[in-house]
Amino acid sequence: YYLVKENITALRRMRKTDNNRIARATGAKIVTSVDELKEQDVGTGCGLFSVEKIGDEYFSFLTECKDPKACTILLRGPGKDTLNEIDRNLQDAMCVARNVLFNPYLCPGGGATEMALSVQLAQRAKSDIPGVEQWPYAGVAEALEVIPRTLIQNGGGNAMRTLTDLRAKHASGLTTWGVDGEKGVPVDMNDYGVWEPLAVKLQTIKTAIDSASLLLRVDDIVSGTSKKQ
């Protein structure tokens, strides 16, 4: 009542995350009690405060802020399922941007990276690795071909023929060639414009090989046990 009387808007029942964001956007410092409030704690960075009704709910907008350190992305859609899907896609996109910011290296997408690794490992298994040790290299090379093969099948292409063409291109040194996800045909990712963060690729391959090693280790342990009579 007293705040409204002095033309001061008070928001109550805010989430802690929202509270922190408002403080960052306006340059304020959060205090636990009104008695502890000092002049330097008050955020004066907000240019315009307004309340607008969207759908059936009211939203508070703090806009035209000076040097804001936080923002809100407002998503709108016809239903909850659509909004949830948009939310997940946006989250993925922001995570990709974050990964590129922390580790600014990109790999060609469309299965080009996996195909390049597969060809290199297969060649190394044949030429550089002697005896039984070449089989793990060949196994990983074959497993990496699953990604481009799946993309070809999803695009409605001929998996065997397209994969052979792609393998030939990579063997001749065209390592940026991958699969067009819509047509299922080989394309140069430099022209197609599909790139993926290196950090994600490294983590994916590392996790896959660690998982395979763990499963093989479990098999060895199981086969090494003797049955009790």
Question: Could you give a quick summary of the protein structure above?
Answer:
By secondary structure, the protein is mainly alpha-helical.
Output the number of helix runs.
9
Query: Level of helix content?
Result: 40-55%
Major sheet: 2 strands, antiparallel
**SSE order in H/E notation?**
HHEEHEHHHHEEHEH
List how many beta strands DSSP finds: 6
Low-confidence stretches: none
Spatial arrangement of strands, main beta sheet: 1-2
Mean pLDDT: 88
Span of the ends, CA to CA: 83 Å
Shape: elongated
Protein name: T-complex protein 1 subunit gamma
Can you describe what's shown?
A hairpin with a 2-residue loop joins strand 1 and strand 2 (57-63). Helix 4 (112-127) runs antiparallel to helix 5 (134-144), helix 4 crosses helix 7 and helix 6 crosses helix 7. By secondary structure, the protein is mainly alpha-helical. The strands form 3 sheets. Strands 1-2 form a two-stranded antiparallel ribbon. Strands 3-6 form a two-stranded antiparallel sheet. It has a two-stranded antiparallel ribbon with strand order 4-5. The protein is elongated and about 85 Å long. It is 51% helix and 11% strand.
